[in-house]
Amino acid sequence: MTTTISCGHELPGALLYAPIGALIIERTGLISGANVSAANLLGESDPEPLRHSLIYTWLKESDAETLRHMVDVHFQAPVETRAGWTRRMTIPSGDGSERPVELTLSPFPEFPEANAIVFVRSLERIMTAERRFAQIFENLPVGLLVVDSRQRIVKANRTLGADFGYSREELIGQSLAMLIPERYRAAHRDHLQGYVQSPSSRMMGVGRDLTGLHRSGQEFPIEIALTRHENASQPLYMAIVTDITHRKRSEVAMQQTNAQLEEFTYVASHDLRSPLRGIADLVSWIREDLEGQELPPDVTRNFERVAIRIERAEQMIDDLLNYARIGVRDPQLETLQPRDLIDEVLATSNIPASFSLDIDVEAGPLKAARAPLSASLRNLLSNAVKHHGSPVGRIRVQVTEDGRFTVFTVEDDGQGIPSGNEERIFKLFHRGSTRVEGDGVGLAFTRRMINANGGMISVTPHGEMGGARFDIYWPRILLREFKDG
Description:
Elements: E1 2-4, E2 10-12, H1 13-16, E3 21-26, E4 31-34, H2 36-41, H3 61-76, E5 85-92, E6 98-107, E7 115-122, H4 124-139, E8 143-148, E9 153-156, H5 158-164, H6 168-171, H7 182-197, E10 202-204, E11 210-213, E12 219-229, E13 236-243, H8 245-289, H9 297-325, E14 333-336, H10 338-347, E15 355-361, E16 366-369, H11 370-386, E17 393-402, E18 405-412, H12 442-452, E19 456-460, E20 469-475
Parallel strand pairs: 15-17
Antiparallel strand pairs: 1-2, 3-4, 3-7, 5-6, 6-7, 8-9, 8-13, 10-12, 11-12, 12-13, 14-16, 17-18, 18-20, 19-20
Helix pairs in contact: 8-9, 10-11, 11-12
C-alpha cells in the first residue's frame, strides 16, 4: 500500500503516520517529501515547510558536512550495493537547545536512482535513559564491571576501582585476569566461556569462597553476581562485585567467640563443678564423722557457711551455662498482648506489697518469643526492688511503640545507678552492690538474651522518677535475618 503525502511523492502508508521521521531527498539534498513525525522533529507543525528545502540547513554545520559526504557516496555507488548508514547528529532548536537524533540514510525503493530516504529518530529518551544508567552505574556503592567476550574490561565504576586499588582509567581495556588471583585464572576463564554460551543472571561461585586480587598483591573476599549487559554491537557481560571483607571478618570473629564460649562452657561444666562436688562430699563426710558430738557454735556456723557458699558456687556455674546457651534466638514466636504479658510477669515476680506499681500500655500486640521477653522483664523488675535502696518504693512499667520496636520501660524511684556505670552494670559478674545478694549475672544475661532476639536494651541512671530506667527495644517487625527458616 502507498500513500501520497503533501509534497507529491509517495511513501509507504505505514511511514506516513509512523512515530519515526521519514524524509525523501534528492541527490542535491533537496527534500521532496516528509511525514508528520519528521516535521515535528525539525520543529515544524506540518511537512509542507520542509518541501523544497535542503536537508543540510536543518542540521549543525559539522553534521551537515558529514551527511552531504554520505549522500554523495550513496548516489555514486551502484544501486545494488547501496546499504543503510546510521549516525548520531543534533538538530538545533529555535531556543538555542539541541535535540539529539539518529539519522539513517537508505535507498528509496520506488526511485533509487534519483531519491534516497532519511529516517530520523529522536534520541532524547534513549539518552536520558543512558544518562540515568550512567549515574546509577557510577554511584552505586558496590563494584560494577563490564567485560566483553574476550574478558577485556570495557567499563568499571569508581567503587570497583577503589576496592581493587586502581583508577578506572587503569582498568579500561585491560584483561580481567589482573583482578583474579593467578591460581584461579584458568578455571575462571573456562567458567566465563561457559557463561557466554548460556548467559543468565546468577551468583558466581555459589558454595565456594571467591577472592579478588588487590593492586598490592593481597587477596580479599568478594561476592560476584553475573548478568548479560545489553549492547547492540557485541555481547557484553556485567559483574556486580561486592567486597565482603568486613562481613567475613565479623563471621570469623563470631566463630572464634562461639568456639571460646563453647570451650569455656565445657570447663565450667566439668572442671569447676567436679572439684566443687568433691568439696561438698568432704564436708558432708566430716559432718557424718562428727555426728553425735556437741560442736562449738562457731564450727556449726562455719559448716553452714561452707554449705551456702558451695550452693552459691553451683548456682553461679548454672548461670554461666545458661548465659552461654542463650546466644541463640528463640524460634518459638507467638502473638503477645503487652498488658497480658506484664500481668503474667508480675504474677511470677516477687514484688513486695510495700511497692506500688504503675502500668501504662500504649502499644498493640507483637509477635515475639514469650520466654526470653518475660525473663528479661522479670529480671528488671527484680532488680528494681533489690537495688532500690529502700523497703518502700514505686515502680512504673510502660509499653510504647518506636519504629519497628515495642519498647518496654521499667523505671523506679530508687537510688538509681552511679554515673559512669551505665555500661559496667551489663558486664558478667559485675555486682551493683555487695549488700544485695546475687552473682552479677542477671543484667548480662538479660542483655545477651535481648540481643540474641534482635532487640537492644538501654539504661538511664536517673530517669524521670529519680531511679534507674531501663528500656527494652523488642522487635515487633522482624528483619529477614530473624525470620524463621
